[in-house]
Specification:
It is globular and about 60 Å long. It contains 20 helices and no strands. The protein has one domain (about 35-175, about 245-390). The N and C termini lie far apart (about 60 Å). By secondary structure, it is mostly helical. Helix content is about 75%, strand content about 0%.
C-alpha cells in the first residue's frame, strides 16, 4: 500500500510537470509575481521586521520569567488586565500579520493563556495607529472609526471565544505544562528589563516607520525624517545594555532561542508568500486570479460580498499600510463600504503565510477556529456597517 502511494505521488508530480502551462501568459505572469513578491518581502521585511521580532521572541522565552507571563497573561490572571493589555498592543508594535508571529509564539510557549495570546495575535497587526489615521484620511472618517472600534472589540471577543471553545484543552495545558517550575532568581531589576525590551521594540518600530502622506508636516513626518537616528540610538543603547547587564551564557541562550524561532517560522513564511503572490499578485499587479473578478464580487453589501472580501483578505498578504491603497483602488472599482471594512478587519491580521506558521505553533484545530472567527466576525461587521452608512 505504501509503495502504491509513493507511485501515485510520483505520477502526480510527473503529470503536473508534463502539463505545466508555461506558454500561458497569465500562468507565467503569476510565477513572476510570486518570485517578485517573495523578493520584495525578503528585502523589505526580513531584516527590518522579522529579525528584530525573532530577537524579541527569543528574549521573551529566555529572560521573561514564566511567573511574569502567568501573572499578566496566564489562565489565572486578572481577565480585565490581560485582555486590556493584549487588545491595545498593536498601538505600540505596529507590525504586520507575519512579524507578530514570533512574539505570539514567545508568550504562548512561555505560559500565556490561549485567550489573551490570541487577543495579542489579532491586535498586534490590526490596531496600527498610523494605518487607522491613513484609513480615515484617505477612505473616510467612517471607515477609520469603524476600523479602530472593530479592531479593539475583535481582539477581545476573539480571545474570549478561543478561551471558551478550547477551555478543556487549556486547563490541561496549564496543568501539565510545568509553566511555574524551574524559575530562577531575577538577575536584573525590573527597570533594567523594561529598558532592554523597550530598546528592542524601538528598533522594530522606528526602523519600519512608514512614510507619511505628501505634505504632512505633523509628528509622523518629523519622526520619519529622523527614524534612522532614533533607530541608531536605540540600537546603541541595546548594545550597551547587553554588554553591561548580561552574562555570556545568557547571550548564548538568547541567540539560540532566537535561532529556533527563525528555523520554525521563516521557511513557512517565505513559502506562504510565494503561494500568495502566485494566486493574488502584488499591489497593482495580478496573479493567476484576475483582480477584476475580485472587484466584481465585492460590490454592494450582500452576505456573499462581505464573506468573499473577508476570505480574500484572510489569504492575501498585506504589508503594514498597503491595505489602504489597495482598498482605494477597489472602492474606485465599485467595492461596497461593508466589504471594505470586512477587508480592513480580516486582512492585516491574517494571511496565508501566517496561517501556515500558526498551525505549527498551536495546531490545525485552533488555527482553523481562529481563522473562522476572524472571517465570520469581519463578514458580520461589514454587513452591519454597510447598512449603517448606506
Amino acid at each position: 500500500m505504501k509503495e502504491w502511494k509513493k507511485f501515485l505521488y510520483i505520477l502526480a508530480a510527473f503529470l503536473a510537470c508534463f502539463y505545466l502551462p508555461v506558454e500561458n501568459a497569465r500562468f507565467s505572469g503569476a510565477v513572476f509575481e510570486a518570485l517578485a513578491l517573495v523578493k520584495w518581502y525578503a528585502r523589505e521585511h526580513v531584516l527590518l521586521c522579522l529579525v528584530p521580532a525573532f530577537f524579541i521572541a527569543g528574549a521573551i522565552s529566555v529572560f521573561v520569567s514564566q511567573a511574569s507571563v502567568m501573572k499578566y497573561f496566564g489562565a489565572k490572571a486578572n481577565k480585565f488586565l490581560s485582555y486590556s493589555v493584549a487588545s491595545v498592543s498593536g498601538t505600540i508594535l505596529a507590525v504586520c500579520s507575519c512579524t507578530v508571529l514570533p512574539l505570539f509564539s514567545g508568550i504562548y510557549k512561555r505560559g500565556a493563556g490561549l485567550g489573551p495570546a490570541c487577543a495579542f495575535l489579532y491586535s498586534g497587526p490590526a490596531i496600527n495607529v498610523l494605518a487607522i489615521i491613513l484609513t480615515a484620511r484617505i477612505l473616510g472618517w467612517q471607515l477609520g472609526l469603524a476600523r479602530a472600534i472593530g479592531s479593539i472589540v475583535f481582539s477581545v471577543v476573539i480571545g474570549l471565544l478561543m478561551h471558551l471553545i478550547f477551555i478543556k484543552e487549556e486547563c490541561s495545558r496549564q496543568a501539565n505544562g510545568n509553566f511555574n517550575l524551574g524559575e530562577v532568581k531575577e538577575t536584573r531589576s525590573l527597570s533594567q528589563t523594561i529598558l532592554y525590551f523597550a530598546a528592542m521594540v524601538s528598533v522594530l518600530v522606528f526602523a519600519n516607520w512608514a512614510k507619511p502622506l505628501e505634505g504632512d508636516q505633523g509628528i509622523w513626518s518629523i519622526i520619519y525624517q529622523y527614524k534612522w537616528w532614533i533607530t541608531g540610538v536605540s540600537l546603541i543603547s541595546l548594545v550597551v545594555m547587553l554588554f553591561k547587564w548580561f552574562k555570556k551564557d545568557e547571550l548564548k541562550e538568547w541567540t539560540g532561542s532566537t535561532w529556533g524561532f527563525a528555523l520554525q517560522i521563516l521557511p513557512l513564511l517565505l513559502g506562504g508568500v510565494l503561494v500568495s503572490g502566485f494566486l493574488l499578485g502584488r499591489v497593482g499587479h495580478e496573479g493567476v486570479i484576475p483582480s477584476r473578478f475580485v472587484a466584481a464580487l465585492v460590490g454592494g453589501n450582500s452576505l456573499w460580498a462581505n464573506f468573499f472580501s473577508s476570505i480574500v483578505a484572510a489569504f492575501m498578504y498585506f504589508a503594514t499600510l498597503t491595505e489602504v491603497p489597495i482598498l482605494q483602488g477597489l472602492i474606485g472599482s465599485g467595492m461596497g463600504k461593508g466589504p471594505a471594512l470586512a477587508l480592513l478587519l480580516a486582512g492585516p491580521a491574517l494571511s496565508l503565510p501566517s496561517m501556515l506558521v500558526l498551525r505549527s505553533i498551536m495546531g490545525t484545530k485552533k488555527t482553523a477556529v481562529y481563522v473562522s472567527l476572524v472571517v465570520g466576525m469581519a463578514t458580520i461587521s461589514g454587513m452591519i456597517f454597510g447598512v449603517i452608512v448606506k
